[in-house]
Specification:
CATH class: Alpha Beta
Distance between the termini: 33 Å
Structural class: alpha/beta
Oligomer: single chain
CATH architecture: Alpha-Beta Barrel
Number of strands: 10
Shape: globular
CATH superfamily: Glycosidases
CATH topology: TIM Barrel
Number of helices: 15
Helix content: 25-40%
Radius of gyration: 22 Å
Length: 393
């Protein structure tokens, strides 16, 4: 009996030891194109914008969310009080102008409201993007940085971007980061998957002149591009640390670093686009070098998907952070439950529940984040009830 009891205790210990403790319960609040907040109906109306944010925070808190990732710089503009970049037209209706709207500081106000609910605020910045293809640059405010320094930018697929190969680009982005970290009581600076633009129709990126003018010892333009992004990540990390020892730096990359058919250390996937080869984002290096505090890959595919299996990728990312100081959170996609065909994995059952259960079997996964708030709060397939059940245990 003694031996059986010891075996039982050992099995219980093993079971408990592999049960991941998910402590970061996050949700993205996207502001670009008024995806989540403020609604299009609230643009230009301070009172309505505040009421909508209160509804969002209360709703998220009720299901167990303890952190929001708020997008405050979607297109080199500001949804916060900034002397460096113009107020966003997603907030006021016209970039750089409050019009008849009562001016306010959405970030400071949201930080106070979130902290009152014991929720963290992670500030989401897009480093390079200037506009969407649907927004003409003629609408840029007179004080927009592109108006003052048009030579810092190039256009690709009808969108304008800071040129990542220029030193002034990194300096400007770090100036923005420093301004935010020193003035707001935030818990993290956050960036997603938009570094170099996603490839479009085989069109080449328009950076050959920058490469020729300042190759920095590289003879391969792809390696040079990756180094450009490495440098900005390293510089942002350094900037944050110089300003605060408490503010984290997190990245939410596209879900696949590299496919194993081009790199044996990549994941067993067949993704058409990868971070390393197409977006020039070497996430693995950033993890190993200690330049980021958490990585939050966007695993927006179902368990069992042939070209990008959620389960395979969850384990791959867990292996990448193992033995490092970098925390691993997983980005989940409740929006895919909306209007899902009954013939698909997203329409057959609660795929989010399956993924959350799997996460708890991988010790390295200590957080989850949901994209994005508006579709989440529509509660497709009772996903909010699922999340609440997991987080209230």
């Amino acid at each position: 009996m003694g031996k059986l009891r010891n075996i039982f205790i050992l099995l219980l210990f093993v079971t408990l030891s592999v049960h991941a403790e998910i402590t970061f319960h996050g949700a993205w609040i996207a502001t670009v194109a008024n995806i989540d907040w403020p609604s299009k109906e609230a643009v230009g109306n301070t009172e309505r914008q505040q009421a909508e944010m209160i509804f969002i925070l209360d709703s998220l808190q009720s299901i167990g969310i303890n952190a929001v990732i708020l997008q405050v710089r979607p297109t080199s503009d500001a949804l916060y009080d900034s002397e460096l970049e113009p107020v966003s037209h997603w907030l006021t209706g016209k970039q750089g102008s409050w019009g008849e709207q009562t001016p306010w500081d959405p970030l400071e106000w949201t930080v106070d409201a979130a902290h009152a609910r014991n929720m963290e605020v992670h500030v989401w910045l897009n480093p390079y993007r200037v506009n969407l293809a649907t927004t003409d640059t003629s609408s840029l405010a007179p004080n927009h940085i592109m108006r003052r320094h048009p030579d810092w930018f190039w256009c690709y697929n009808k969108q304008w971007y800071f040129d990542p190969g220029l030193d002034v680009t990194r300096e400007w982005i770090c100036t923005i980061v420093q301004d935010i970290v020193t003035r707001y009581d935030i818990q993290a600076i956050h960036m997603d998957d938009y570094f170099y633009p996603y490839p479009s129709g085989g069109n080449p990126l328009p950076d050959s002149k920058t490469f020729a003018a300042n190759p920095r010892g590289f003879d391969n333009i792809a390696d040079w591009r990756r180094n450009n992004v490495n440098l900005v990540i390293q510089d942002i990390h350094r900037t944050i640390r110089e300003c605060s020892s408490d503010v984290q730096f997190g990245i939410s990359p596209f879900g696949v670093w590299r496919n194993a058919d081009v790199d044996s250390t990549g994941s067993a996937t067949k993704a058409g686009i990868t971070n390393y080869d197409d977006l020039y984002a070497d996430i693995r290096l950033w993890i190993k070098a200690g330049w980021i505090d958490y990585v939050l890959p966007q695993l927006y595919w179902e368990i069992g998907k042939k070209v990008a299996d959620y389960e395979i990728l969850a384990h791959w990312w867990a292996n990448e952070v193992r033995g490092t100081k970098c925390k691993l959170y997983i980005g989940l996609a409740p929006y895919r439950l909306e209007n899902a065909s009954p013939k698909t994995a997203w329409g057959k059952g609660n795929e989010i529940s399956r993924q959350m259960r799997l996460n708890r079997t991988i010790p390295e996964i200590t957080g989850e984040c949901f994209y994005s708030t508006r579709p989440l709060l529509k509660n497709p397939r009772h996903v909010c009830d699922t999340i609440q059940e997991f987080y209230k245990k």
